[in-house]
Amino acid sequence: MPHIAHLARRLALLIGRGWLRLTNDTPAIQQIQAEFFAGEVHDQMERVQDYGLTSVAHPGMQAISAFVNGDRSNSIVLAVADTRYRLRGLQTGEVALYDDQGQVVHLTRSGISISTPLSVTVSAGQSLRLEAEDIVLHGRTSLSWDVDGYGRRVTSTGGGSYEDKTWQQGAVVSPQTLPIHPPEGP
Predict the structure, then answer these.
(1) Structural domain includes residue 132
(2) pLDDT digits (tens, 9 = 90+) for 51-101
(3) Same structural domain for residues 153 and 89?
């Protein structure tokens, strides 16, 4: 009977739910410190992450760990979760990448939505191609582009007008203030 009791205890200790305290993202496999039972703190727990995705979780997030053979000194963190930032209301089949700052890449049933309260930078070493039936670029305040020292910037000046400024490397160009005539207007 003592053998069965020992086995049952090890099975009970096989999976644990704890709270993340610290993250070390420097090693090849990320390591975390988490607290499980009151006072049961584990350091340098390896956090398994899916290929191509990585994150550094905030302290206080829930950590789900497997303890190999029920040995509490031999653990692997399987997942971390934080209900404070999780997106809700997705439709079946949708996927989203998100963070605590409100940045979202959402694969919806009707297309891809990217939103951020910050900024977006797309960088390509060779080429960038946008292709669609209809491409709309909209700047609330301004829109700029340049190619090898020649460029143009259109800036709203308020009151139904905008400033149109072009430039060319080595040339002085004065901006013009022009009235706005939307395509659907006269």
Answers:
(1) no
(2) 999 999 999 999 999 998 888 888 999 999 998 899 999 999 999 999 999
(3) no
Closest CA to 78 of 88, 68, 69: 68
Q: Provide the phi-psi class of 28: left if phi over 0, else alpha when psi is between -120 and 50, else beta.
A: alpha
Quote the CA–CA distance of 167 and 160 in Å, as a whole number: 23
pTM exceeds 0.90 for this model: no
Q: How many independent structural domains does the chain possess?
A: 3
- The domain in which residue 158 lies consists of 137-180
93 Rama class: left (phi>0) / alpha (psi -120 to 50) / beta:
left
* Amino acid at the residue 177: T
- Nearest C-alpha neighbor of 20 from the set 43, 52, 2: 43
